[in-house]
Amino acid sequence: MKRNKFLINLILITALITIIFSLAGCAGSAGVKSTDTAAVTTAALETNPSSKNEIIIESNVFKPDNITIKAGDTITWINKDSYSHTVKASNGEFDSGNIASGGKFSFTFKSEGTYDYICGIHTFMKGTITVTK
User: Fold this and answer.
1) How many CB atoms lie within 10 A of CB 75?
2) Do 88 and 120 contact (CB within 8 A), yes or no?
3) Which of 33, 38, 54, 101 has the smallest count of CB within 10 Å of its CB?
């Protein structure tokens, strides 16, 4: 009889812990679907002035992939993937070399114009920097 009570209590406690962890996981992502991550990242970049000129490299995508800055501004690419990427300008103006996981690369854009770039390792990854006065 004591063994049955112990097993029932163990099952109830396990179920309760499972429910608590499930609810805690839901609370952290209220209103955000997993497909909304790009929108959330873009919104965070637009509302956080310190990260306005940052481009996140994640899931084989530049986020954002198009950005407009002023001449003299610096862009910093941050690699959040678990493998290396590069940032290479189509016109040869800049080339980061390999950016390891967690690494960064910065470039200051001195002249107006449109700068297209790719990841030299994953050439399907593309982005554009538009520099204005």
Assistant:
1) 22
2) yes
3) 33
| Token pair belonging to 124 | 């399907």
Whether 56 has a pLDDT exceeding 90, the answer reads yes
> For every residue of 78-100, which 3-state class applies, written as one string?
EECCCCCECCEECCCCCECCCEC
Structure tokens at 99: 């950016």
Q: Quick check: 17 pLDDT over 50? A: yes
Asked if 83 contacts 107 with a C-beta cutoff of 8 angstroms, the reply is no
* Structure tokens, 67: 């950005």
**pLDDT at site 4:** 63
Structure tokens at 93: 């103006």
Domain boundaries, the chain: 53-132
Q: Which CATH class is domain 53-132?
A: mainly beta
